[in-house]
User: Fold these one by one.
Assistant:
Number 1:
Amino acid sequence: MSSKKSVIICGGGIVGLSCAYYLARDGWSVTVVERNAEGADSCAQGSAGYISPSHVVPLAAPGMVWKGLKWMMSSRSPFYIKPRLNADLMRWGWLFARACTPEHTVRAAPVLRDLSVSGRKLFVELADLTGNAFELKKEGLLNLCKTQECLDHESHGLARLANELGVEAQVLDAKQTAALEPGARMDVAGSVYFPIDAHLSPRKFIPALIGLLQQLGVTFRWSTSVDGWRTEGGRVAAVHTTAGELTADEFVLAAGSWSPDMVKGLEIRLPLQAGKGYSLTIEKPRFQLTKSLILTERRVAATPMGDTLRFGGTMEISGINDRIRSERVQQIIDAVPHYFPDFTAADFAGIKPWYGLRPVTPDGLPYIGRFGRHPNLTAACGHAMLGVTMAPSTGLLVSEVLGGRKPSLSLEMLSPDRYA
Ligand SMILES: Cc1cc2nc3c(=O)[nH]c(=O)nc-3n(C[C@H](O)[C@H](O)[C@H](O)COP(=O)(O)OP(=O)(O)OC[C@H]3O[C@@H](n4cnc5c(N)ncnc54)[C@H](O)[C@@H]3O)c2cc1C
């Protein structure tokens, strides 16, 4: 019998797979339980693929309550909460509103920065290890501003905060912006450039990571759902799955937007809402970008991935469902020609919109760490808009926690018990 300590990762999205990698590297016997088949879609696959230390402001930021209320009236707004009589949503909304303070931003921003900067460093290591199989590009990110008003707002707000936190941000005029993307005709007042940001092709990253996990001997239980737990003396003894009961020394909750449902049987309440976003990938774009971009006023992301160009965005808190709201997809399509006059709606004709459900916590910080109630269960979920960026740093932290080592970043604000 193996003397290795065993761990079961519940959920095989980018965060679960990253946890599996760092644990297997440390010598754990790792099993990943994923209800979908190998190669199926997950939230990261259609994402914008940003690795974004520049995203230092949490979603729960000052002014968001007012904006959220205003945007609630319009299903075309970038951030939309579908009004519903649902106790979990109401509690989440209340906790979200409570977090929208300047004090919370001051406390949360360095935590987001550290998780993201660490994530970027680890992606560079993974790129070296895989011969850059996932097209990591260290080109930076441009926040394009159509209007001078937006540029002034970004330079006094995000750019100033980022620079204060040591994340370099350069405010550029239209000419300087054009010089950084010479192949694209843009109609903008300027931009904020974050040289540290990077991007990758998520559809290439996931198979590359699975390849590394196979080399490390990780066991995969594809097409297997977690549907319950067995506890003994406060510890989790086993997880019930559609393929039978599985036992291990440790368990990791990495089920993205489904995490609260997964732990309901353990009487754990984890405030988290699914935030739906959409993307559209143009196979043969009119021109190609070199960097990832944000169309700031419209909150739309643009990322070059190989020869293709992906546009994505919107945050729709409407529960877990697979409904594609065409008016929200249209909002992405409508935004593009405002910044890139050479593009028209015809460029998007026939493209099937992709959607993903971001796991959104009320305070914009992920849940990482052990649960007090069941100390051999560790949370790795709730990364919202930064789950790609933070997947490797989360995996590393989880391996440090399970290995009994001092975490390389403080977990104080990330505790899954913070709303218990
Ligand atoms: C449009 C869009 C653009 C984005 N762009 C970026 C970006 O540029 N940069 C960035 O950092 N982040 C981005 N994100 C966010 C990022 O994609 C997510 O935060 C991240 O993918 C979440 O990963 P996860 O592993 O936590 O969740 P998921 O990918 O949702 O994985 C959870 C897994 O758990 C499985 N599961 C659920 N229930 C069960 C069960 N009962 N039993 C077994 N398995 C189960 C699911 O099948 C799923 O595979 C974007 C998201 C969207 C929607």
Number 2:
Amino acid sequence: MDRADLETAFRLQAGICQYLGSPFYQALMTTALADVRADGRVAQLLDGWSGDPVRAFLPLRLFGAVHEIVLAGAAPALARYYPTMGGTADPDAAWPAFLDVLVQHPDRVHETLQRFPQTNEVRRSAGLLGGFLEVARRTGLPLRLRELGCSAGLNLQWRRYRYRLGPHVWGDRDSGVAIEAEWDGPPPHLASLPEIESRAGCDLDPRPIDDENAVRRLESYVWADQPERLQQLRAAIRVAREDPPRVDHASAAEWLAAELSAPPPGVCTVVYHSSVWNYLPPEEQDRVRGHLEAAGRAASAGQPLAWLRHEDTGELGAVEIRLQLWPDGEERLLGLGHPHGRRVEWYETTSR
Ligand SMILES: C[S@@+](CC[C@H](N)C(=O)[O-])C[C@H]1O[C@@H](n2cnc3c(N)ncnc32)[C@H](O)[C@@H]1O
């Protein structure tokens, strides 16, 4: 791996952490960058890794590896500075303890460096919700939910959360999960109360919610000075354990082909995904699109098909929420989102 690429990866990630409200990780990423420039411990640890450190989010892999060890209770000296463990975010004091973890646990760190960072951010349901409500309004049918890249399946249970979207409220008042997001623009179609016909998702590497280690790995990619995200993740896992959705171990395109092969009449199949599209290789993106277009041609008013996306555009912080609905196949930009679901800028949808 080229050292210059590694420096770029840490520099970019420090900027992203700053933009997404993690000053603690921003400071630690900046210190790690200085370490790489000085050929320090981080540089030496990562030297044997091969691949593109920017595209692979290598800094997030490293920080996830360390956080996982902290969450497991195996790094008490560092836990004192990790807010997710009740510590105070002090990056200068944390750094020597961070380096110690790398020295004490090289095998665990190296194992995690081979794996892609994997989150399941339930607040993305804030942006997806407006799309689901719009589909329900336009079709008037129960929804058959099919999520690609669903991780632990926590956004398959969006119907069971309560929402406060700026001034607007929606959902189950007694839910253990409260989704709060800033909301600009007109409200979504709050009068819709969709019935859910069924829920299922797939993931290349699903996170079983009854497996403590799988859950800890999921938790480890939450940034250590964002404990509210960790609390929300844990709350959503508790809700999921009451009535887990079906999560299949499969790649998106092949799974989707099977799920679209015989859609039941009288329901609207909603295929959706968030923060997944850029993970799919271009040929798999083409196959997913091809399956949807073929199923769209076979759709009818009594058997419609929706494709809802909450996906990064590639520009820092830019997320689009798009909906395509068949049988007419019209595609609309419903609004703009946020990588972690903190904000939604909604466009008028209810006039049509
Ligand atoms: C950033 S996570 C987003 C998870 C979830 N959609 C969310 O919004 O919280 C990306 C997910 O896509 C999954 N993934 C990546 N490539 C995939 C593929 N080809 N087929 C299915 N899932 C895939 C990963 O395993 C990971 O769980």
